[in-house]
Amino acid sequence: MRGAQLTDLLDNSPAGVTEALDVVDGFDQALVGGLSRLDAERTAALAALAGAVASTPLGSALAETVDKVAAGSVGDEHLLRLAGARTAMVGAVHDALREQADTALGRTRAQWPALTTAAGPVDGRLLAARSWLAELAITGWRNVDHDLVATSQQALHALLAEPTLRRAAVLLDGLAAELHHSSPVATMDRLPVRRWADLWARAMLLTSPESQPAAPEPVSGRLLILGADVHEHATAVQLQVHALLETNGEPTGDSAPRLVRVSVSAAKVDTIVGPVIWQLLAAHPVLLAALAGRLSLDVTDMPLHPSGDLVWHDGQARPGEPADPFAVARVQLGEALAPAVPPLDRHPVSIAEPVLLEGYTASSDDAGLSFDLDGTRIAVDVDRLPGCGPLTADLVAASTACLGLLRWDDGGWSVQPTGVQATVKRKKVAVHTGDWAQGPTDPKIAKAVARSGDTIAVLRERAGRLLRK
Amino acid sequence: MADGRLQGVVSSGSDIERVYVSSIAAGTHELSCRTNNNRPCGGLSNGVPCNHIALLAEEAIVQYGAEQVVRFLRFDPDMEITIGHQIVWMLDRNVQVAAVSPAAAVFSRFLRHLSYLELPGSVEALPELHWFPAGAVAR
Ligand SMILES: [Zn+2]
After folding, report:
1. Which residues does residue A427 pair with via DSSP β-bridges, in sequence order?
2. What is the spatial distance between Cα A362 and Cα A356, in angstroms, rounded to a whole number?
3. I need a labelling partner for A296 at 20 to 30 A (CA). Which of A54, A62, A220, A237 fits?
4. Phi, psi of A283 (to 5 degrees)
5. Which of A204, A231, A409 to mutate to test the interface with B (most CBs of B within 10 A)?
6. pTM above 0.80?
């Protein structure tokens, strides 16, 4: 990003975002006390949500829903509609922000293709999850206790057993664990009101099957890695690799490289944290070797979703030439074609746009670390630096160039670094999140990992014995 | 650390088919150690903690850090504790064996956890995990 682009981004916040989020916050407050006992203020907040979507296809159904809920009759279908209306509001906020970022970056984005398959029937396992989510909404966060959280377990088990329902399972598990640790919620000082409502609404919609666009198209070409991001809660870890795909003009006829994501994930237990987590992803050795060795990859017939998600098959990838992510970004990131965003993923949390920043001054104050680029400052989100990689806040503070993900959270833009160039002890170094993908290169950390490294093997062995008794 | 106890599952040193559920209660420091079949541990008696308790304390310090473990168990925060055996030495003089054992519940939770390690991985994106950045997990 150049200084002028950053100024464009920070100076032109889209109209209506604050107002839309106010409506969302009003609804979220209703979830705090529960939908079974709405006072006048909360009823008005629900009516405001219905008013905000009145001119959309949801309009009349939602007006009716709000009347029913206010009268004390709250069914799963009503809650699904409320979750849908909230999601539509947040989706509009997402679209405005995404457009603002694309304009500032000069990024071209593909259109979401027309839907081709109708939604199928609802899986019974999803209905079980939905009824737990409904119970939460009716009860209200304030009244959540261990017993209510525990009732999620049966639905969760059924979901986890079905690989095609993993999205819903992982989300439900993350929410349940968070509520478990917060229980009894009545004793908490401050609740993460918007966060829990975000998770609840997304989970609710995941219990309703989507209509799907056409099947992913097979692509072949050269994959140039920009950076890696890691997501993790107690029982799941996901590695997301942002990369450029050069397809020699096939199959779209477009010669610009495409921005894509590779996501590989594994189930885990909460005692497995830090650099050991790479071992959970060992089923993808070619991908991990490319990250650790900063290599390009040649992929053959790999399925690519219109969302930009490349479905990783390690056997269909071969390591290629070395490729420095900074060099790749300098030459090609500017012209890359960005993917479309699936309707359900239209939430500001999904904005994680690869960017390159250079020629800034890093400085730290009470508000945290920020980069100053030609007089414009952007916050640096060092809290999202994963513990499994070598990238630390200190390195970022000492950096002169940064590859990262542009994010938006609660009113502000920030950059989450995925790689930096810095001067350490008068030597220029480049450090990336994925550097330890084949194990830590720092001997001290490698020793600690080796000491606890058998944890996964021991637990797997125990699982093999104890679960089959 | 849950339900007022430091608790965990410890592999038996002698029998590969067996594990022990060991716990130390916060505050009272009552101990409990039973096998997965809910039989009491032979090594634990009033006055002497068993080896499993020592291993539990050791692992807790590796995982959570001494300071957090000491605070949770409500030992004197000024005590310099760096290894698990020091916790055992502090328990040593008047060990009480808990009358009620949490073993069954802890063991079933442990089994549920182990079952995660048998789930296949996924190569489809899980967009919801953007709400769970790895940085929020302790380094
Ligand atoms: Zn014992």
Report:
1. A424
2. 14
3. A237
4. -70, -5
5. A231
6. yes
Residue A466 in contact with partner chain B when CB distance is under 8 A: yes
Rounded Cα gap, residues A99 and A15, in angstroms: 12
Task: Tell me the mean pLDDT in the region A108-128.
Answer: 86
> Would the CA dihedral through B128, B131, B135, B139 be positive or negative?
negative
Q: Kindly identify which residue of chain A lies nearest to residue B128, measuring between CA atoms.
A: A171
Mean per-residue pLDDT for B95-120?
Answer: 84
Q: What is the pLDDT of residue B59?
A: 86
Mapped onto helix, strand or coil, the DSSP state of residue A263 is: strand
* C-alpha to C-alpha distance for A221 and A317, rounded to whole angstroms: 10
Q: Which member of B115, B128, B135 has the closest CB to residue A170?
A: B128
B16 contacts in A (CB within 8 Å)?
A: 465
**Sequence-ordered alpha helix ranges (H) in A251-299:** 285-293
Q: How many CB pairs under 8 A join A and B?
A: 146
Cα distance between residue A137 and residue A38, in whole Å: 12
Q: B49-85: per-residue pLDDT in tens?
A: 888 999 999 888 877 788 888 888 888 878 788 887 8
What amino acid is encoded at B106 in this protein?
V
Going from the C-alpha of A35 to that of each of A8, A27, A40, A188, the distances in angstroms are: 42, 10, 12, 20
* Chain A positions in Cβ-Cβ contact with residue B117 (cut-off 8 Å): 267-269, 456, 459-460, 463
Whether A214 contacts A280, CB under 8 Å: no
**Angle at the Cα of A291 (from A285 to A296), degrees rounded to 5?**
95
For residues A62 and A130, give the distance between their C-alpha atoms in angstroms, rounded to a whole number. Answer: 19
Rg, C-alpha atoms of chain A: 23
Place of tokens 């737990």: A132
Question: Is A146 near chain B, with CB under 8 Å?
Answer: no
Q: What is the pLDDT of residue A179?
A: 95
What is the Cα A343 distance to its own chain's centre? 14
Q: What angle do CA B132, A205, A175 make, to 5 degrees?
A: 35
**Interface with A, mutate which of B15, B132, B139 (most A CBs under 10 A):** B132
| pLDDT of res. A254 | 63
The whole-angstrom separation of Cα B133 and Cα B122 is 18
DSSP A5-66: HHHHHHH-PPTTHHHHHHHHHHHHHHHHH-TTS--HHHHHHHHHHHHHTTTSTTHHHHHHHH
